[in-house]
Amino acid sequence: MATAEEIARAADRRDIRNRWYLSAPAMLTIFFAAVGPLAIVLVYSFLTPGSYGDVKWQFSPEAWVSVLFERDIFDDTLSLASAHISIFWRSVKLAIITTIITLAIGFPTAYFMATRSEKTRDLWLFLITIPFWTNLLIRTFAVLQIIRNEGIINTVLIKLGIVSAPIQILYTDAAILIGMAYVYLPLMVLPVYASMEKLDFRLVEAGYDLYASRWQVLRRIIFPLVKPGVIAGSILVFIPAIGAYVTPSVLGGGKNMMLSNLIELQFGQGRNWPLGSALSITVMLIVMVALLVYVRNAGSQEARHG
Question: Can you tell me the distance from the alpha carbon of 162 to that of 209, in angstroms, rounded to the nearest whole number?
Fold first, then answer.
């Protein structure tokens, strides 16, 4: 006859087995929808490009070499791929600046929303989410109509006599920044607002009662308490910004390429699928490093404050 301990162990084993059975559909979905395609891309990055696209099943690390280097067509020597490095730098730079701009605009916006009455607060939250109702491409074309040479900005400036000729904004890095800041601003506002809404504003009042300046209250009280929302918003903005495709294509005009445009070029006109795969994995690694830095900094600061 089984002892109570053996019966308990058997029950635990059944419980674990049932949990695996219940989670199996989700795990299979994750594998076939995420891990599987990623594994294919990783395998393709170590193969030889085909003549008309696709790949030849011959092992070659050349795609990974071509991410940062290029071979001379005459003597086969390696040199830095200045075009790729320039695109890498532009993508990271624009993603970081976009994150800073959205934070600079989103933080006071979230503070304003959090300090309103509940009914008014819900209205402002509703207004912030309205852009999500519209397709990204349509929103990008809306920005294009504002900043093009015959757009609203240049028309107003010329009418006011501030400039005599249209300012070239479209097809520049500034145009891409404007577009990405507009598109991703709600992704910064919502997490910061979620943290700001839970803030005990009696602490802010106490800071003022102790003769702290506004800057001191912001730096020593408000910002540390809403920092999780700031970190979450920064991640939500930085990751899609560094992999942005539509906005640089429309507002950059193909002259100011970012990583996603370069990857699309390799799978399209370039017909170099291994290089496109290697670049895709590189983007994923950059995002992973950024996430690790964010998480590590957040963890260390929480430990210091704890």
Answer: 46
**How far is Cα of residue 261 from the mean position of the Cα atoms in its chain?**
15
Left if phi > 0, otherwise alpha if psi is -120 to 50, otherwise beta: which for 272? Answer: beta
What are residue 260's phi and psi, to 5 degrees?
-65, -35
* Tokens standing for residue 94: 């624009």
Q: What span, in angstroms and rounded, lies between the C-alpha atoms of 55 and 48?
A: 6
Q: Does residue 287 carry a pLDDT above 60? A: yes
C-beta of residue 253 within 8 angstroms of C-beta of residue 238: no
For residue range 20-58, list pLDDT tens digits in order: 888 888 888 888 888 888 899 999 999 999 888 788 999
pTM of this structure: 0.84
In this structure, what DSSP letter does residue 257 have? -
Instruction: Please give the structure tokens belonging to residue 162.
Output: 């501030």
The residue count of the chain comes to 306
Q: Which amino acid is located at 130 in the chain?
A: I
Which neighbouring-strand residues pair with 48? 56
In the numeric block, the tokens 């107003």 are attached to 156
Q: Where are the alpha helices (DSSP H) in 47-135?
A: 62-68, 82-114, 118-129
Cβ atoms 201, 236 nearer than 8 A: no
